[in-house]
């Protein structure tokens, strides 16, 4: 690897301060475009997690009693600061993740939409009221915050995915501890700065950097009420089981193998454009990337030809270069894993139509080019496993029935798309496919912030999806009130106590 450049140390943000704490271990933060280490990040010990949770617990006592108006004002101020710092935050993301700058800006803006949704918290937390449910008795309900909530987030969206969590958690009156990916941690510290500038009290939002030690400490901590996680399916299952055993509320989003079905009647030029963008954008490091194109009937040969042409035309280069359309992958280990999967596909009999292993980019870095593999079948590792790289597999199918059955047989169920000119085909697809999010002539059907994001089956271990209305429900719990105010000195028989189970009258 290239020599280590002069590097900075990325520290925890606890109770409004930048701290080293008990951390003595560090991890490298690379520049994926050059292969040079640009920083080191502290890896938290359990004592650091204890300090962050204690800060959040102390801050929760006051913040949970803050008026809805005050919480909304902080969110509006945070929104304004985020909007003013889109470029700055995007550059931080691009420098550590490797994605191109415009893609990083898009990530920040989609996270900003969740903040905008959270600005409406007075409306979102309105309760229910029923007058006169029984003689002289009223009933109502409202929702209260949980306490200290924690987020454990992946490298692929270091700004957006945390913003699926903390704006709603905080707006609902909780305090929050974020454990971002140690691969690209700086965006989270910048967000902490913006929260402080927005007027959020110290301790309401804290950042601890780390690895499994920090994760386990959060999962086990008795003062953490809820855990939100996004990552691979094996780790999501682990997080869900361990946190649930500790009686925490958990939402754990796992992996994906998103399919896009292309029908013979679809506009193949349009479909090829969309598939290339959805398969190779952000170097395929998206949980909603299209990794399998299902070519139905006679659409296959021309679809492969058109996607292959577009794959070869993708301009691959450093994320901060305005000419680049796709950047490097995040680490050398990620590159090696992706390259190995391409080789496995070829060995299994699939046709590597465009081979990203052949890409050459000068200056070092973690490069894999857009890759298109045709004649892929279930049972091949390139089909069965989540590769998380710029690899698009093509499966041939004889009919829409076969395509739907193929998708439903897959254990991953995040999203799926169909390209068609038939409303009947689209309606069948949206009703029969067993995934959480559907796109119709839209390749990456990530819902807007006022809906909720989440898959089915092995793509989620949770009762609630993230952000949107289900996010509000996840970060609060309901309380039902039944009230009666008998008149002073009244002798109404209904006011007398009864040994029988109460009924309405």
What are the segments in which pLDDT stays under 50 over at least 5 consecutive residues?
1-5
Helix content: 25-40%
Stated plainly, the CATH topology of the largest domain is called Aldehyde Dehydrogenase, Chain A, domain 1
> Strand order of the main beta sheet, please?
15-16-17-14-13-19-20
Query: How many H/I helical runs?
Result: 16
* Domains (count): 2
Distance between the termini: 79 Å
DSSP strand content: 15-25%
Question: What does this entry look like structurally?
Answer:
38% of the residues lie in helices and 23% in strands. With 505 residues, it is of the alpha/beta class. It has two domains: 8-254 and 459-479, Aldehyde Dehydrogenase, Chain A, domain 1 (3-Layer(aba) Sandwich); 258-440, Aldehyde Dehydrogenase, Chain A, domain 2, CATH 3.40.309. A seven-stranded mixed beta sheet has the order 15-16-17-14-13-19-20, sandwiched between helices. Strands 10-9-8-11-12-22 form a six-stranded mixed beta sheet, sandwiched between helices. The longest helix has 18 residues, at 46-63. It starts with 7 loop residues before the first strand and ends in a 21-residue tail after the last strand.
């Amino acid at each position: 690897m290239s020599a280590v450049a002069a590097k900075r140390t990325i520290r925890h943000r606890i109770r409004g301060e930048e701290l080293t704490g008990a951390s003595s271990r560090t991890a490298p933060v690379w520049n994926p475009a050059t292969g040079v280490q640009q920083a080191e990040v502290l890896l938290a010990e359990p004592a650091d997690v204890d300090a962050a949770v204690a800060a959040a617990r102390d801050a929760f006592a006051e913040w949970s009693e803050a008026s809805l108006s005050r919480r909304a004002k902080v969110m509006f101020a945070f929104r304004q600061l985020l909007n003013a710092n889109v470029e700055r935050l995007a550059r931080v993301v691009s420098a550590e993740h490797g994605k191109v700058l415009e893609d990083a800006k898009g990530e920040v803006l989609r996270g900003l939409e969740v903040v905008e949704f959270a600005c409406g918290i007075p409306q979102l937390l309105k309760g229910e009221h029923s007058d006169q449910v029984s003689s002289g008795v009223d009933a109502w309900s409202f929702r209260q915050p949980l306490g200290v909530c924690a987020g454990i987030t992946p490298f692929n969206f270091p700004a957006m995915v945390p913003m699926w969590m903390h704006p709603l958690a905080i707006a609902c009156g909780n305090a929050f501890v974020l454990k971002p990916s140690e691969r690209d941690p700086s965006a989270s510290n910048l967000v902490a700065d913006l929260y402080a500038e927005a007027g959020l009290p110290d301790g309401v939002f804290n950042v601890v950097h780390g690895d499994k030690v920090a994760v386990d400490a959060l999962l086990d901590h008795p003062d953490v009420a809820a855990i939100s996680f996004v990552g691979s399916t094996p780790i999501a299952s682990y997080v869900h089981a361990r946190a649930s055993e500790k009686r925490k509320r958990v939402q754990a989003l796992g992996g994906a193998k998103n399919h896009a079905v292309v029908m013979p009647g679809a506009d193949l030029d349009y479909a090829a454009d969309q598939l290339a963008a959805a398969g190779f954008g952000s170097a395929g490091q998206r949980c909603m990337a299209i990794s399998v194109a299902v070519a139905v009937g006679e659409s296959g040969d021309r679809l492969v030809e058109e996607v292959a042409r577009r794959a070869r035309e993708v301009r691959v280069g450093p994320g901060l270069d305005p000419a680049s359309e796709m950047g490097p992958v995040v680490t050398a280990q990620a590159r090696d894993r992706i390259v190995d999967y391409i080789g496995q596909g070829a060995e299994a009999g699939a046709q590597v139509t465009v081979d990203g292993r052949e890409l050459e980019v000068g200056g070092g870095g973690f490069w894999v080019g857009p890759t298109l593999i045709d004649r892929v079948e279930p049972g091949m590792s390139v089909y069965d496993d989540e590769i998380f790289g710029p690899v698009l597999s093509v499966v041939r199918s004889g009919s829409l029935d076969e395509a739907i059955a193929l998708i439903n047989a897959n254990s991953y169920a995040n999203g799926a798309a169909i390209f068609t000119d038939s409303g009947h085909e689209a309606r069948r697809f949206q009703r029969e496919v067993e995934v959480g999010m559907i796109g119709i002539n839209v390749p990456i059907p990530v819902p807007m912030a006022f809906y909720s994001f989440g898959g089915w089956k092995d793509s989620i271990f949770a009762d609630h999806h993230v952000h949107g209305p289900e996010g509000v429900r996840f970060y609060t719990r309901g309380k039902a009130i039944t009230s009666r105010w008998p008149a002073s000195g009244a002798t109404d028989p209904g006011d007398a106590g009864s040994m029988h189970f109460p009924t309405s009258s």
